[in-house]
Design a protein that fits this description.
Helix 2 packs antiparallel against helix 3. Helix content is 72%, strand content 0%. The chain contains 12 helices and no strands.
């Protein structure tokens, strides 16, 4: 509960800072609509020539992109503002020194204390697109499918956070190493179902760098109904990724000696 209150307080302060610059809201809305519109246009163009792509219908693609957009919005709101700049601000500029003196978890402060509320625009657009896709589907999702989708989206968020922490932890050993470009490029693959890729890439995106969990797996569960094995696998992947991130963080802190050392 303490961490939830800290998260709420940080979000509130970030929201007040964001609304102080209202012109940013206009540009963020325009950029969000432009990015989502481009993705939707590509799907609609493809499905003017085909009824399905790798076994996925147009409605399923819309649900997938909506799920991807929703998770991307939450990632941009709560994770990226902290971890994207961690090697620069946390290690080289010494912000982590201040976190170590605070009476709260350093992992929480370093990875979730800041937020970017305007990124929630992408979350809202994702919800709208999700509703469009569900409305266009041949059958409505079952209650079990909805519950499965919610559980798998939460698991995807945990995995997303853990991947961000693991990449940030590399800065303890190589402060000048920047893998953000690689991470953001790989993240873009999450907007496509893994079935469209060749088998080696599909295996890589499922078991090594689990982009399949971001949108493909929750979408399949939502439209295909409850799948116990998939749910267990998603929860296990989230738990394992979170534990690995916590271990890497503790190992990095043992190595860290301060920004001025």
């Amino acid at each position: 509960m303490k961490l939830l209150r800290l998260l709420g307080a940080g979000f509130s302060m970030s929201l007040r800072r964001s609304v102080a610059f209202r012109i940013n809201l206009v540009f963020d809305v325009l950029l969000a609509f432009t990015g989502l519109g481009t993705a939707i246009a590509a799907v609609l163009i493809v499905f003017t020539r085909a009824d399905s792509l790798a076994g996925w219908s147009k409605a399923e693609f819309l649900v997938l992109i909506g799920t991807y957009q929703l998770i991307t919005g939450l990632r941009g709101t709560f994770i990226d503002p902290n971890l994207s700049w961690f090697p620069e601000t946390g290690i080289r500029n010494g912000r982590l020194d201040g976190y170590l003196l605070q009476p709260a978890s350093t992992l929480f402060l370093a990875s979730l204390s800041l937020s970017s509320p305007l990124a929630l625009i992408q979350f809202l657009l994702g919800l709208g697109l999700l509703g469009w896709g569900i409305g266009a589907a041949d059958a409505s999702p079952s209650p079990g499918g909805v519950v499965s989708w919610v559980v798998l989206v939460v698991a995807a968020l945990v995995v997303t956070w853990a991947l961000g922490v693991l990449l940030a932890c590399l800065a303890f050993w190589a402060p000048k190493l920047q893998l953000d470009v690689f991470y953001h490029s790989a993240w873009q693959l999450g907007r496509y179902p893994t079935d469209v890729f060749a088998r080696p890439i599909r295996v890589l995106l499922t078991y090594v760098f689990p982009m399949a969990l971001i949108a493909s797996v929750p979408t399949a569960a939502l439209l295909g109904g409850r799948q116990l094995g998939v749910l267990i696998g998603g929860v296990a992947a989230a738990a394992g990724a979170a534990a690995l991130a916590a271990l890497a963080w503790r190992a990095g802190l043992r190595r860290y000696t301060g920004a001025t050392s």
